[in-house]
Amino acid sequence: MVSDFRKKKYLDIFAHFDTDSNGKIEKKDFETMAETIAKSPDGTINEVKHKEYLNALLAIWSGLQQADANKDGHVSADEWVAQWDAYAKNPAAPQEWQKVYCKFIFQLLDTGNDGSIDNEEFVKAYESWGFKKDDAVKTFGKLSQGKSTLSWAEFQKLWQEYFTSEDANALGNLLFSSPSP
């Protein structure tokens, strides 16, 4: 049984995917998300990025459909939690969609496409996701443990920690949340 601590983390991510806040994740949520993250600050959509994001997000959706245990065409919060709980029990064998999701987020953050995430990239992305700049700077400093970048290998470790750890102080918990004041 999934702990309340991990369940809360899973549901926090679920809420981001549920773009229309209807309590379920559907294909249209992924389409909306692709459009949202492809928008520039002036509101125009970068068509090249939109296509790239849409392809990646639809690949995640395609794999995630296996979580739809009752085959009703969407993934409920309970089904979402069950998928991540199964991952936490065997993180060495993630489902393909979970690997694609991890890589997608890394590539979204690595805007320089150099195989690492630096402070500027991290802060810019997190600000666009609604974080305060100071919180994003603080979060990156903690995640990178004072280094100037986060590598793909480091990111994967933090990712795994977020989805599996029961330790409230684990650094991976900061991937999708602000640091404590």
TrEMBL record:
Query: Which InterPro entries does the entry link to?
Result: EF-hand-dom_pair (IPR011992), EF_Hand_1_Ca_BS (IPR018247), EF_hand_dom (IPR002048)
Q: Where is the EF-hand domain?
A: 5-40, 97-132
The answer to keyword NAD applying to this record is no
Question: What UniProt keywords apply to this chain's record, in alphabetical order?
Answer: Calcium
Species annotation: Papilio xuthus (Asian swallowtail butterfly)
Is Calcium there in the keyword field? yes
| Annotated Gene3D superfamilies | EF-hand
Stored SMART domains: EFh
Q: Which PROSITE patterns does its entry note?
A: EF_HAND_1, EF_HAND_2
Protein name per UniProt:
Calexcitin-2-like
